[in-house]
Specification:
The complex is a heterodimer of chains A (169) and B (352). With 169 residues, chain A is mostly helical. Chain A has helices at 30-35, 52-64, 71-75, 85-91, 99-102, 104-115, 129-148, 152-167; strands at residues 13-19, 22-28. Chain B contains 13 helices and ten strands. An eight-stranded antiparallel sheet of chain B has the order 2-3-4-5-1-8-10-9, with helices on one face. In chain B, strands 6-7 form a two-stranded antiparallel ribbon. Classes of the chains: A mainly alpha (169), B alpha+beta (352). At the A-B interface, strand 1, strand 2, helix 1, helix 6 and helix 7 of A face helix 5, strand 6, strand 7, strand 8 and strand 9 of B.
Chain lengths: 169, 352
Protein backbone atom coordinates (compact mmCIF):
# COMPACT_ATOMS: atom_id res chain seq x y z
CA UNK A 1 0.00 0.00 0.00
CA UNK A 2 1.26 3.47 -0.88
CA UNK A 3 1.57 6.25 1.67
CA UNK A 4 -1.65 8.26 1.80
CA UNK A 5 0.24 11.51 2.26
CA UNK A 6 2.98 11.46 -0.40
CA UNK A 7 1.56 8.69 -2.62
CA UNK A 8 5.14 7.70 -3.43
CA UNK A 9 6.69 5.52 -0.78
CA UNK A 10 5.36 2.31 0.73
CA UNK A 11 3.19 2.90 3.83
CA UNK A 12 4.67 1.19 6.88
CA UNK A 13 2.78 2.84 9.70
CA UNK A 14 -0.89 2.98 10.42
CA UNK A 15 -2.23 5.91 12.39
CA UNK A 16 -5.66 5.34 13.91
CA UNK A 17 -8.19 7.69 15.41
CA UNK A 18 -11.34 6.60 17.15
CA UNK A 19 -14.03 9.11 18.12
CA UNK A 20 -16.95 7.37 19.76
CA UNK A 21 -17.83 4.56 17.37
CA UNK A 22 -16.24 6.21 14.36
CA UNK A 23 -12.83 4.91 13.36
CA UNK A 24 -10.49 6.39 10.78
CA UNK A 25 -7.06 5.22 9.74
CA UNK A 26 -4.23 6.76 7.81
CA UNK A 27 -1.48 4.64 6.25
CA UNK A 28 1.76 6.54 5.90
CA UNK A 29 5.47 6.02 5.26
CA UNK A 30 8.33 6.57 7.74
CA UNK A 31 9.40 9.79 6.08
CA UNK A 32 5.96 11.42 6.15
CA UNK A 33 5.42 10.21 9.72
CA UNK A 34 8.55 12.02 10.83
CA UNK A 35 7.73 15.08 8.74
CA UNK A 36 4.27 15.31 10.33
CA UNK A 37 5.84 15.27 13.76
CA UNK A 38 4.29 11.88 14.37
CA UNK A 39 7.56 10.40 15.54
CA UNK A 40 7.19 12.68 18.53
CA UNK A 41 4.36 11.15 20.54
CA UNK A 42 4.24 14.30 22.66
CA UNK A 43 3.16 16.55 19.85
CA UNK A 44 -0.51 17.36 19.55
CA UNK A 45 -1.56 15.02 16.80
CA UNK A 46 -5.18 16.09 16.58
CA UNK A 47 -4.59 17.87 13.32
CA UNK A 48 -3.01 14.91 11.54
CA UNK A 49 -6.15 14.07 9.68
CA UNK A 50 -6.31 17.52 8.27
CA UNK A 51 -9.32 19.50 9.18
CA UNK A 52 -11.79 17.19 10.87
CA UNK A 53 -14.17 20.08 10.84
CA UNK A 54 -14.20 20.17 7.06
CA UNK A 55 -15.10 16.49 6.95
CA UNK A 56 -18.00 17.04 9.33
CA UNK A 57 -18.91 20.15 7.40
CA UNK A 58 -19.01 18.44 4.03
CA UNK A 59 -21.16 15.72 5.54
CA UNK A 60 -23.52 18.38 6.89
CA UNK A 61 -23.52 20.20 3.59
CA UNK A 62 -24.16 17.05 1.60
CA UNK A 63 -27.27 16.49 3.68
CA UNK A 64 -28.39 20.03 2.95
CA UNK A 65 -27.57 20.65 -0.64
CA UNK A 66 -25.99 18.86 -3.57
CA UNK A 67 -23.66 21.75 -4.31
CA UNK A 68 -20.66 22.47 -2.09
CA UNK A 69 -20.57 26.22 -2.55
CA UNK A 70 -23.60 27.96 -4.02
CA UNK A 71 -24.17 31.53 -5.22
CA UNK A 72 -26.47 32.00 -2.25
CA UNK A 73 -23.60 31.15 0.13
CA UNK A 74 -21.46 33.91 -1.36
CA UNK A 75 -24.19 36.45 -0.62
CA UNK A 76 -24.48 35.54 3.06
CA UNK A 77 -21.84 37.85 4.49
CA UNK A 78 -20.86 38.87 8.04
CA UNK A 79 -21.18 42.65 8.33
CA UNK A 80 -18.40 42.86 10.91
CA UNK A 81 -15.58 41.09 9.11
CA UNK A 82 -16.78 40.44 5.55
CA UNK A 83 -16.54 36.64 5.76
CA UNK A 84 -19.12 34.88 3.61
CA UNK A 85 -20.72 31.53 4.36
CA UNK A 86 -19.00 30.31 1.21
CA UNK A 87 -15.60 31.29 2.73
CA UNK A 88 -16.43 29.34 5.87
CA UNK A 89 -17.35 26.27 3.85
CA UNK A 90 -13.89 26.29 2.32
CA UNK A 91 -11.77 26.95 5.41
CA UNK A 92 -13.87 25.72 8.34
CA UNK A 93 -12.86 28.87 10.26
CA UNK A 94 -15.09 31.78 11.23
CA UNK A 95 -13.88 35.35 10.76
CA UNK A 96 -14.85 37.10 13.99
CA UNK A 97 -17.01 36.68 17.11
CA UNK A 98 -19.95 38.34 15.34
CA UNK A 99 -19.98 35.56 12.70
CA UNK A 100 -21.67 33.28 15.24
CA UNK A 101 -24.60 35.69 15.25
CA UNK A 102 -24.59 36.32 11.50
CA UNK A 103 -24.76 32.61 10.68
CA UNK A 104 -26.71 31.63 13.79
CA UNK A 105 -29.08 29.13 12.16
CA UNK A 106 -26.24 27.36 10.29
CA UNK A 107 -24.17 27.30 13.46
CA UNK A 108 -26.94 25.79 15.57
CA UNK A 109 -27.20 22.87 13.17
CA UNK A 110 -23.47 22.50 12.63
CA UNK A 111 -22.64 22.60 16.34
CA UNK A 112 -25.26 19.98 17.05
CA UNK A 113 -23.44 17.79 14.54
CA UNK A 114 -20.03 18.40 16.09
CA UNK A 115 -20.86 18.42 19.80
CA UNK A 116 -24.21 16.67 19.94
CA UNK A 117 -25.48 19.90 21.45
CA UNK A 118 -25.64 23.60 20.70
CA UNK A 119 -26.15 25.37 24.00
CA UNK A 120 -23.37 26.44 26.34
CA UNK A 121 -23.84 25.37 29.96
CA UNK A 122 -20.24 25.76 31.12
CA UNK A 123 -18.51 28.66 32.79
CA UNK A 124 -20.33 31.97 32.22
CA UNK A 125 -18.38 35.17 31.71
CA UNK A 126 -16.74 36.11 34.98
CA UNK A 127 -16.43 33.72 37.87
CA UNK A 128 -16.37 29.96 37.55
CA UNK A 129 -19.69 28.58 38.87
CA UNK A 130 -17.98 26.33 41.38
CA UNK A 131 -16.20 29.30 42.82
CA UNK A 132 -19.49 31.16 43.08
CA UNK A 133 -20.97 28.28 45.08
CA UNK A 134 -17.96 28.29 47.34
CA UNK A 135 -18.34 32.02 47.90
CA UNK A 136 -22.01 31.64 48.73
CA UNK A 137 -21.24 28.80 51.15
CA UNK A 138 -18.65 30.83 53.01
CA UNK A 139 -20.93 33.86 53.12
CA UNK A 140 -23.69 31.70 54.63
CA UNK A 141 -21.32 30.52 57.34
CA UNK A 142 -20.42 34.09 58.11
CA UNK A 143 -24.12 34.99 58.17
CA UNK A 144 -24.76 32.30 60.81
CA UNK A 145 -21.93 33.72 62.85
CA UNK A 146 -23.31 37.27 62.60
CA UNK A 147 -26.76 36.08 63.67
CA UNK A 148 -25.27 34.30 66.70
CA UNK A 149 -23.41 37.48 67.57
CA UNK A 150 -26.64 39.45 67.06
CA UNK A 151 -24.90 41.62 64.46
CA UNK A 152 -28.12 42.20 62.49
CA UNK A 153 -26.81 45.04 60.41
CA UNK A 154 -23.94 42.92 59.08
CA UNK A 155 -26.27 39.97 58.65
CA UNK A 156 -28.72 41.97 56.53
CA UNK A 157 -25.91 43.17 54.32
CA UNK A 158 -24.62 39.64 53.87
CA UNK A 159 -28.11 38.33 53.13
CA UNK A 160 -28.44 40.85 50.31
CA UNK A 161 -25.06 39.89 48.89
CA UNK A 162 -25.96 36.19 48.91
CA UNK A 163 -29.28 36.91 47.23
CA UNK A 164 -27.56 38.94 44.53
CA UNK A 165 -25.01 36.19 43.87
CA UNK A 166 -27.71 33.54 43.65
CA UNK A 167 -29.67 35.55 41.13
CA UNK A 168 -26.66 36.01 38.89
CA UNK A 169 -26.65 33.35 36.19
CA UNK B 1 17.15 35.37 23.92
CA UNK B 2 19.64 33.04 22.32
CA UNK B 3 21.34 32.34 25.63
CA UNK B 4 17.94 31.50 27.12
CA UNK B 5 17.40 28.81 24.50
CA UNK B 6 20.97 27.54 24.94
CA UNK B 7 20.23 27.11 28.62
CA UNK B 8 16.87 25.45 28.00
CA UNK B 9 18.30 22.64 25.91
CA UNK B 10 20.01 21.18 28.98
CA UNK B 11 16.92 21.48 31.15
CA UNK B 12 13.74 19.48 31.24
CA UNK B 13 10.15 20.41 31.82
CA UNK B 14 8.59 19.33 35.11
CA UNK B 15 6.03 17.24 33.26
CA UNK B 16 8.78 14.83 32.17
CA UNK B 17 9.70 14.07 35.77
CA UNK B 18 7.85 10.75 35.85
CA UNK B 19 6.21 11.81 39.12
CA UNK B 20 2.51 11.94 39.90
CA UNK B 21 -0.23 9.38 39.96
CA UNK B 22 -0.07 6.43 37.53
CA UNK B 23 3.02 7.89 35.90
CA UNK B 24 4.14 4.41 34.83
CA UNK B 25 1.29 4.43 32.30
CA UNK B 26 0.28 8.08 31.93
CA UNK B 27 3.23 10.20 30.81
CA UNK B 28 1.51 13.56 31.06
CA UNK B 29 -1.81 15.33 31.47
CA UNK B 30 -2.60 18.52 29.63
CA UNK B 31 -5.40 21.09 29.71
CA UNK B 32 -5.78 23.74 27.04
CA UNK B 33 -8.10 26.74 27.03
CA UNK B 34 -9.04 28.81 23.96
CA UNK B 35 -10.15 32.44 24.34
CA UNK B 36 -10.67 35.40 22.00
CA UNK B 37 -11.13 39.12 22.49
CA UNK B 38 -14.46 40.79 21.81
CA UNK B 39 -14.81 43.11 18.78
CA UNK B 40 -11.59 41.98 17.07
CA UNK B 41 -11.58 39.55 14.13
CA UNK B 42 -10.13 36.09 14.75
CA UNK B 43 -6.45 35.68 13.87
CA UNK B 44 -7.05 34.40 10.32
CA UNK B 45 -8.97 37.57 9.42
CA UNK B 46 -7.35 40.26 11.55
CA UNK B 47 -5.06 42.94 10.11
CA UNK B 48 -1.42 43.26 11.10
CA UNK B 49 -2.30 46.25 13.31
CA UNK B 50 -4.97 44.18 15.03
CA UNK B 51 -2.51 41.30 15.53
CA UNK B 52 -0.07 43.70 17.19
CA UNK B 53 -2.83 45.22 19.32
CA UNK B 54 -3.94 41.78 20.55
CA UNK B 55 -0.35 40.80 21.22
CA UNK B 56 0.40 43.80 23.41
CA UNK B 57 -2.95 43.78 25.26
CA UNK B 58 -2.85 40.07 26.05
CA UNK B 59 0.84 40.06 26.90
CA UNK B 60 0.60 42.95 29.37
CA UNK B 61 -2.47 41.38 31.01
CA UNK B 62 -0.86 37.95 31.22
CA UNK B 63 2.34 39.29 32.74
CA UNK B 64 0.29 40.58 35.67
CA UNK B 65 -1.01 37.08 36.44
CA UNK B 66 1.00 35.59 39.31
CA UNK B 67 2.12 32.45 37.50
CA UNK B 68 3.51 34.45 34.55
CA UNK B 69 5.35 37.05 36.67
CA UNK B 70 8.77 35.62 35.84
CA UNK B 71 7.77 33.85 32.65
CA UNK B 72 9.87 34.18 29.52
CA UNK B 73 8.34 35.74 26.44
CA UNK B 74 9.40 34.76 22.92
CA UNK B 75 8.46 36.86 19.92
CA UNK B 76 8.20 34.41 17.00
CA UNK B 77 9.85 36.92 14.65
CA UNK B 78 13.01 36.67 16.74
CA UNK B 79 13.33 32.89 16.36
CA UNK B 80 14.94 30.96 13.51
CA UNK B 81 13.44 27.81 12.00
CA UNK B 82 15.38 25.43 14.22
CA UNK B 83 14.38 27.33 17.38
CA UNK B 84 10.74 27.07 16.37
CA UNK B 85 10.90 23.29 15.91
CA UNK B 86 12.80 23.06 19.19
CA UNK B 87 9.79 24.62 20.94
CA UNK B 88 7.34 22.42 19.03
CA UNK B 89 9.26 19.38 20.30
CA UNK B 90 8.98 20.71 23.85
CA UNK B 91 5.21 21.02 23.32
CA UNK B 92 5.27 24.74 24.09
CA UNK B 93 3.91 25.73 20.68
CA UNK B 94 2.01 23.96 17.88
CA UNK B 95 3.56 23.22 14.51
CA UNK B 96 0.91 25.48 12.94
CA UNK B 97 2.05 28.31 15.20
CA UNK B 98 5.63 27.69 14.10
CA UNK B 99 4.68 27.99 10.43
CA UNK B 100 2.46 31.09 10.63
CA UNK B 101 3.74 34.43 9.33
CA UNK B 102 1.72 36.97 11.32
CA UNK B 103 2.78 38.79 14.54
CA UNK B 104 2.62 36.29 17.39
CA UNK B 105 4.47 35.13 20.47
CA UNK B 106 4.35 32.88 23.50
CA UNK B 107 4.97 32.97 27.22
CA UNK B 108 6.43 30.09 29.20
CA UNK B 109 7.18 29.58 32.87
CA UNK B 110 10.53 28.21 34.08
CA UNK B 111 9.09 24.80 34.89
CA UNK B 112 7.44 24.76 31.43
CA UNK B 113 4.26 23.68 33.18
CA UNK B 114 2.28 26.71 32.04
CA UNK B 115 2.45 28.46 28.70
CA UNK B 116 0.40 30.75 26.51
CA UNK B 117 0.38 31.21 22.75
CA UNK B 118 -0.87 34.59 21.58
CA UNK B 119 -2.32 34.81 18.06
CA UNK B 120 -2.31 31.14 17.18
CA UNK B 121 -5.68 30.08 15.71
CA UNK B 122 -7.35 31.93 18.59
CA UNK B 123 -6.10 35.12 20.22
CA UNK B 124 -5.30 33.23 23.41
CA UNK B 125 -4.34 29.59 23.97
CA UNK B 126 -3.36 28.74 27.53
CA UNK B 127 -1.94 25.33 28.40
CA UNK B 128 -0.94 23.56 31.59
CA UNK B 129 0.93 20.23 31.42
CA UNK B 130 1.62 18.08 34.47
CA UNK B 131 3.39 14.77 34.93
CA UNK B 132 1.34 11.60 35.43
CA UNK B 133 -2.43 11.37 35.69
CA UNK B 134 -3.21 14.84 37.00
CA UNK B 135 -5.94 16.44 34.90
CA UNK B 136 -7.59 17.75 38.09
CA UNK B 137 -4.49 19.60 39.15
CA UNK B 138 -3.91 21.03 35.67
CA UNK B 139 -7.54 22.10 35.44
CA UNK B 140 -7.40 23.79 38.82
CA UNK B 141 -4.40 25.85 37.86
CA UNK B 142 -5.63 26.86 34.39
CA UNK B 143 -8.94 27.93 35.94
CA UNK B 144 -7.15 30.40 38.19
CA UNK B 145 -5.26 31.90 35.24
CA UNK B 146 -8.44 32.22 33.23
CA UNK B 147 -10.13 33.94 36.14
CA UNK B 148 -7.33 36.46 36.53
CA UNK B 149 -7.14 37.18 32.79
CA UNK B 150 -10.91 37.64 32.45
CA UNK B 151 -10.87 40.46 34.99
CA UNK B 152 -8.88 42.63 32.60
CA UNK B 153 -9.90 41.40 29.15
CA UNK B 154 -13.21 41.45 27.32
CA UNK B 155 -13.63 37.92 26.09
CA UNK B 156 -15.77 37.10 23.05
CA UNK B 157 -18.75 35.31 24.59
CA UNK B 158 -22.35 34.53 23.70
CA UNK B 159 -25.07 33.19 26.02
CA UNK B 160 -26.06 30.60 23.43
CA UNK B 161 -22.62 29.35 22.33
CA UNK B 162 -20.32 30.29 25.23
CA UNK B 163 -16.72 31.28 24.53
CA UNK B 164 -16.41 31.97 20.80
CA UNK B 165 -13.52 30.46 18.86
CA UNK B 166 -12.30 30.60 15.27
CA UNK B 167 -13.01 26.90 14.77
CA UNK B 168 -16.45 25.59 15.80
CA UNK B 169 -14.82 22.46 17.24
CA UNK B 170 -13.53 24.49 20.21
CA UNK B 171 -16.51 26.71 20.96
CA UNK B 172 -18.39 26.69 24.29
CA UNK B 173 -16.01 25.92 27.12
CA UNK B 174 -12.95 26.16 24.87
CA UNK B 175 -11.41 23.45 27.00
CA UNK B 176 -9.46 20.41 25.82
CA UNK B 177 -8.29 17.78 28.30
CA UNK B 178 -5.79 15.23 27.06
CA UNK B 179 -3.40 12.59 28.33
CA UNK B 180 -0.47 10.75 26.78
CA UNK B 181 -0.79 7.14 27.66
CA UNK B 182 1.67 4.29 27.13
CA UNK B 183 -0.09 0.98 26.41
CA UNK B 184 2.65 -1.45 25.32
CA UNK B 185 1.15 -4.71 26.55
CA UNK B 186 -2.40 -4.02 25.35
CA UNK B 187 -0.87 -3.29 21.96
CA UNK B 188 1.50 -6.27 22.03
CA UNK B 189 -1.28 -8.72 22.89
CA UNK B 190 -3.55 -7.06 20.29
CA UNK B 191 -6.22 -6.52 22.94
CA UNK B 192 -6.26 -2.86 22.09
CA UNK B 193 -8.35 -3.36 18.94
CA UNK B 194 -11.16 -4.93 20.94
CA UNK B 195 -11.04 -2.23 23.59
CA UNK B 196 -11.19 0.49 20.98
CA UNK B 197 -14.26 -0.94 19.33
CA UNK B 198 -16.01 -1.42 22.67
CA UNK B 199 -15.36 1.38 25.03
CA UNK B 200 -14.90 4.79 23.46
CA UNK B 201 -17.94 6.93 24.34
CA UNK B 202 -19.22 9.61 21.96
CA UNK B 203 -17.34 12.87 22.19
CA UNK B 204 -14.01 11.36 23.19
CA UNK B 205 -11.11 10.75 20.81
CA UNK B 206 -8.32 8.19 21.09
CA UNK B 207 -5.45 8.45 18.65
CA UNK B 208 -2.29 6.52 18.10
CA UNK B 209 -0.28 4.25 15.89
CA UNK B 210 -1.67 0.78 15.78
CA UNK B 211 -3.45 -1.46 13.36
CA UNK B 212 -3.49 -4.93 11.89
CA UNK B 213 -0.46 -5.90 9.89
CA UNK B 214 1.49 -2.71 10.29
CA UNK B 215 4.35 -1.41 12.34
CA UNK B 216 3.44 0.09 15.69
CA UNK B 217 5.26 3.23 16.75
CA UNK B 218 6.06 3.38 20.41
CA UNK B 219 2.66 2.31 21.75
CA UNK B 220 1.80 5.85 22.76
CA UNK B 221 -1.77 7.07 22.57
CA UNK B 222 -3.57 10.35 23.09
CA UNK B 223 -6.97 10.50 24.75
CA UNK B 224 -8.92 13.76 24.64
CA UNK B 225 -12.42 15.22 24.64
CA UNK B 226 -13.93 16.24 21.32
CA UNK B 227 -17.09 17.83 22.68
CA UNK B 228 -16.48 21.30 24.11
CA UNK B 229 -20.07 22.59 23.98
CA UNK B 230 -23.17 21.51 25.87
CA UNK B 231 -21.23 20.22 28.89
CA UNK B 232 -19.80 21.98 31.90
CA UNK B 233 -16.02 21.89 32.22
CA UNK B 234 -16.32 19.54 35.19
CA UNK B 235 -18.80 17.44 33.21
CA UNK B 236 -16.28 17.00 30.40
CA UNK B 237 -13.56 16.09 32.90
CA UNK B 238 -15.90 13.58 34.57
CA UNK B 239 -16.55 12.00 31.18
CA UNK B 240 -12.91 11.63 30.17
CA UNK B 241 -11.55 10.48 33.53
CA UNK B 242 -13.32 7.10 33.88
CA UNK B 243 -12.29 6.11 30.36
CA UNK B 244 -8.65 6.86 31.11
CA UNK B 245 -8.94 4.87 34.34
CA UNK B 246 -10.29 1.92 32.41
CA UNK B 247 -7.34 2.00 30.05
CA UNK B 248 -4.97 2.08 33.04
CA UNK B 249 -6.71 -0.88 34.70
CA UNK B 250 -6.73 -2.92 31.48
CA UNK B 251 -3.06 -2.24 30.77
CA UNK B 252 -2.10 -3.16 34.38
CA UNK B 253 -4.07 -6.39 34.11
CA UNK B 254 -2.50 -7.25 30.76
CA UNK B 255 0.97 -6.66 32.27
CA UNK B 256 0.17 -8.88 35.23
CA UNK B 257 -1.18 -11.65 33.00
CA UNK B 258 1.76 -11.63 30.66
CA UNK B 259 4.23 -11.66 33.56
CA UNK B 260 2.44 -14.72 34.97
CA UNK B 261 1.89 -16.64 31.76
CA UNK B 262 4.52 -15.55 29.24
CA UNK B 263 7.21 -13.86 31.25
CA UNK B 264 9.94 -15.10 28.93
CA UNK B 265 8.24 -13.53 25.90
CA UNK B 266 8.13 -10.08 27.44
CA UNK B 267 11.65 -10.41 28.87
CA UNK B 268 12.90 -11.37 25.42
CA UNK B 269 11.29 -8.27 23.93
CA UNK B 270 12.76 -5.93 26.54
CA UNK B 271 16.30 -7.39 26.54
CA UNK B 272 16.38 -7.46 22.74
CA UNK B 273 15.52 -3.76 22.77
CA UNK B 274 18.34 -3.16 25.24
CA UNK B 275 20.72 -5.14 23.02
CA UNK B 276 19.74 -3.22 19.90
CA UNK B 277 19.94 0.19 21.52
CA UNK B 278 23.38 -0.56 22.98
CA UNK B 279 24.83 -1.66 19.64
CA UNK B 280 22.97 0.40 17.01
CA UNK B 281 25.03 3.06 15.26
CA UNK B 282 22.22 4.53 13.18
CA UNK B 283 18.89 5.11 14.91
CA UNK B 284 15.87 6.69 13.22
CA UNK B 285 13.45 8.48 15.51
CA UNK B 286 10.74 5.94 14.77
CA UNK B 287 12.93 2.91 15.56
CA UNK B 288 14.13 4.71 18.66
CA UNK B 289 10.57 5.19 19.93
CA UNK B 290 9.88 1.48 19.54
CA UNK B 291 12.93 0.54 21.56
CA UNK B 292 12.24 3.22 24.12
CA UNK B 293 8.73 1.90 24.63
CA UNK B 294 10.09 -1.56 25.41
CA UNK B 295 12.74 -0.19 27.79
CA UNK B 296 10.21 1.97 29.59
CA UNK B 297 8.09 -1.15 30.09
CA UNK B 298 11.18 -2.89 31.41
CA UNK B 299 11.47 -0.22 34.10
CA UNK B 300 7.76 -0.48 34.96
CA UNK B 301 8.06 -4.27 35.35
CA UNK B 302 11.23 -3.92 37.47
CA UNK B 303 13.27 -5.82 34.90
CA UNK B 304 15.63 -2.94 34.20
CA UNK B 305 16.71 -1.70 37.60
CA UNK B 306 19.44 0.69 36.46
CA UNK B 307 17.06 3.17 34.83
CA UNK B 308 14.04 5.22 35.78
CA UNK B 309 10.94 6.56 34.03
CA UNK B 310 12.22 10.13 34.16
CA UNK B 311 15.23 9.31 32.00
CA UNK B 312 13.09 7.72 29.29
CA UNK B 313 10.57 10.57 29.36
CA UNK B 314 13.39 13.06 28.88
CA UNK B 315 14.87 11.04 26.05
CA UNK B 316 11.60 11.23 24.11
CA UNK B 317 12.16 14.98 23.87
CA UNK B 318 15.95 15.00 23.75
CA UNK B 319 16.19 12.54 20.84
CA UNK B 320 13.93 14.63 18.60
CA UNK B 321 15.52 16.13 15.47
CA UNK B 322 15.70 19.80 16.54
CA UNK B 323 17.03 18.91 19.99
CA UNK B 324 19.84 16.82 18.52
CA UNK B 325 20.75 19.70 16.24
CA UNK B 326 20.62 22.19 19.10
CA UNK B 327 22.91 19.98 21.18
CA UNK B 328 25.29 19.71 18.25
CA UNK B 329 25.01 23.43 17.57
CA UNK B 330 24.32 23.15 13.83
CA UNK B 331 21.84 21.87 11.27
CA UNK B 332 22.31 18.24 10.27
CA UNK B 333 21.14 15.85 7.59
CA UNK B 334 18.76 13.06 8.52
CA UNK B 335 21.60 10.50 8.44
CA UNK B 336 23.82 12.66 10.65
CA UNK B 337 20.97 13.01 13.11
CA UNK B 338 20.32 9.27 13.18
CA UNK B 339 24.01 8.62 13.93
CA UNK B 340 24.09 11.22 16.69
CA UNK B 341 20.82 9.90 18.12
CA UNK B 342 22.36 6.44 18.46
CA UNK B 343 25.40 7.76 20.32
CA UNK B 344 23.38 10.21 22.45
CA UNK B 345 21.08 7.44 23.62
CA UNK B 346 24.00 5.11 24.43
CA UNK B 347 25.63 7.88 26.44
CA UNK B 348 22.44 8.69 28.37
CA UNK B 349 21.89 4.99 29.14
CA UNK B 350 25.57 4.48 30.05
CA UNK B 351 25.94 1.82 27.37
CA UNK B 352 29.26 2.96 25.93
Amino acid sequence: MLCEKCHQREAVVKFTQVIGTEKKTLNICDVCAEKQGLSNPMVDISKVFGKIIIAILSEYLASQTSQTVSEKDKKEVCKECGLSWADFKLTGRLGCPACYNTFVEHMKMLLRRIHGNNRHIGKPLGKHPKEKEETIRSLRKKLQKYICEENYEGAAELRDRIRKLEQKK
Amino acid sequence: MHSVIEQMKFQFADWLSGKGKDSDIIISSRVRLARNLQNIPFVNRASEDQHNAVLSTVLSTAQKVAVFKNAKYFNMFALDELDKIFFVERRLISSEFAEMQSPRGFLVTDSEETSMMINEEDHIRIQVICSGFSLDKAWYSIRLIDEEMSKNLNYAFSDQFGYLTACPTNVGTGVRFSVFIHLPVLTFTKKIEGIFSEMIPAGIAVRGFYGEGSKVIGNFFQISNQYTLGWTEQGILDRVTPLIKRFIIQERKAREDIMNDQRIVIEDKIYRALGLISKARILSSIEFLDLLSALRLGVDLSLLKDYDTKLFNELIVLAQPAHIQKLEGKTLTEMERDILRASLVRKKLHLN
